[in-house]
Amino acid sequence: MTNKRLLSIDILRGLGIMVILVIHRIHYHWSGMQSTETLKTHFSGPWMPFIVFVIALLTMAGIFYFMTGIVNAYSMYSRVAKGKSSSTKIMMFGLAGGIWIFLMNYVQRFFFMNGFVAGENGEVPKYPVGLLTGCIQDSANVTFRWSQLTEPGTLSLIGLVVIFVSLVLGILLRDNYQEKINKIHLILLILAILSIGLSPFSKFYLRPIFDIYMEEGHYFKALGIGLICREFGLSPYLGYGFIGAALGISLAHGEDRKTLHRKGLYSAIGLLISGAIMILIFDKTDDFERGAIGTGICMIELGLFIFILKILLKVFDYANEQKIGVRQQKSRGMRRFGMLALTVFIFEPVVAEILKKTIDSIVGTNWNNHLPLVLLFGFFCLLFWHLLLKQWEKVNFAGSLEWFTGRIMLKLIKKKTGKTSFNELRTPYLS
Question: What per-residue confidence (pLDDT) applies to 1?
Answer without folding.
Answer: 45
